[in-house]
Design goal:
single chain; 345 residues; alpha+beta; Immunoglobulin-like; 3 domains; nine-stranded mixed sheet; five-stranded mixed sheet; 4 helices; 37% strand; binds 2-acetamido-2-deoxy-beta-D-glucopyranose; cytokine activity; Ig-like_fold; disulfide bond
Length: 345
């Protein structure tokens, strides 16, 4: 016991020498951040706490350690395990152990910043009740990974970590898979754990719990048709193709927003019968049962009802409601040809 104590004392001394050495050799800004994915081995420690780093090798024989590629020429830094007795900013980064010219393994020492985040950078969204959903991480962190399930929140070895699948402006995007049945009453919450490392080797870990139904946000629906019925327009809307089927079970409700032709006033309704004297409309949807988040609006569509040709001949399918009739389309084609002829002549 006494022996161990004195060893601890010696390490403390070692540590202060390191700080001194580092300040001399590697400032300013020489702590090159070199991670582009999550490191296999890392140790997270709180500031001023002790951390022990281990070289992944059987024997203690002639091991030398490097810190951020700088040799630690210290008598204490030659065993299989290395103790940093007071972790601080200047001491976090990559530690590698060497024998001769061969690197045996490497481990990152990271500074714990748990609890420093008030606004969670993690947001998740599901387009449907299918088995996958996506999460966005929006913060400055350099590498991030997510894990789904209890095992990840308690940091079990069996946690299956997921890498981001898309680099995102100012963050990362992930796709996660769950095994909940879309038809059953949802009684278990999803648990998503995130781990992130910043370029100063600070480490953040946070866990969020939610029901799948709480993160549902459908994609935009499709405006299929507009049909004049008396003084109204009957708008036919189809759920997005990514939405769960059968639609009779996974009921969506729609909202239509439209612009009056005469005064440009904007109105919205949940009815699919709207006034026909309008110039354009757009639609959005949400899960009618759980009153989910609304989808994004569809793009505005011009409405051509009545005699006025409000729909231009180009982009008729995308921007017109109803789509032009075959005769109208033929007319457009002819017009196009004529214009072409006029131009070439
Ligand atoms: C250490 O050197 C290797 C090889 O030159 C390099 O890939 C790595 O980024 C360096 N690590 C640090 C922390 O600078
Ligand atoms: C779920 O998977 C489908 C099919 O692979 C894909 O099109 C969709 O974008 C995924 N959804 C999310 C939210 O990642
Ligand atoms: C979680 O960990 C336990 C114990 O390590 C294991 O038995 C179980 O299969 C793991 N669950 C998942 C979903 O990986
Ligand atoms: C509106 O259109 C839908 C689908 O085309 C149709 O089933 C419905 O009867 C129409 N409603 C009216 C009032 O015409």
């Amino acid at each position: 016991m006494g022996n161990r104590k004195s060893k601890g004392g010696a390490e403390k001394m070692t540590l202060s020498l390191w700080i001194f050495g580092l300040l001399l050799i590697s400032l300013p800004g020489a702590h090159g951040f070199n991670l582009n994915s999550f490191p296999e081995n890392f140790v997270v420690a709180k500031k001023d706490h002790q951390a022990t780093l281990t070289c992944d090798v059987k024997s203690d024989e002639s091991i030398k350690w490097k810190f951020n590629n700088e040799s630690l020429d210290d008598d204490e830094a030659n065993g299989r395990s290395l103790t940093v007795s007071e972790v601080e900013e200047a001491l976090v980064g990559e530690y590698s152990c060497w024998r001769g010219g061969e690197q045996l393994s490497s481990v990152y020492l990271l500074l714990d910043t748990e609890g420093d985040v008030s606004d969670s950078p993690l947001t998740c969204r599901a387009q449907s009740y299918h088995c996958n959903f996506s999460c966005k991480w929006t913060s400055e962190h350099k590498v991030v990974r997510l894990g789904l399930g209890h095992n990840c929140s308690v940091d079990e070895k069996s946690c299956h970590w997921v890498k981001p699948n898309l680099p995102l402006e100012g963050g990362f995007q992930f796709e996660l898979y769950h095994s909940l049945s879309p038809y059953a009453e949802e009684s278990t919450m999803l648990t998503v754990t995130a781990e992130a490392i910043d370029e100063d080797y600070s480490f953040l870990r946070l866990t969020e719990r939610f029901y799948l139904r709480e993160i549902i946000q459908p994609d935009s629906p499709t405006i299929v048709n507009c049909q004049k019925v008396g003084h109204h327009l009957n708008v036919t809307i189809e759920p997005p193709s990514s939405w769960s089927t059968p639609y009779s079970f996974f009921n969506l409700e729609h909202q239509i927003e439209y612009v009056h032709r005469d005064d440009g006033a904007i109105e919205s309704t949940s009815s699919t019968l709207i006034p026909w004297k309008i110039s354009s409309l757009r639609v959005r949807s949400r899960d009618a049962l759980v009153l989910s988040e609304w989808s994004q609006w569809t793009p505005w569509k011009n409405v051509h009802a009545g005699k006025k040709k409000l729909c231009k001949c180009k982009n008729t399918v995308k921007y017109c409601c109803p789509q032009l009739s075959p005769e109208d389309l033929l007319h457009c084609k002819k017009k196009k040809k004529k214009n072409k002829k006029l131009r070439t002549n």
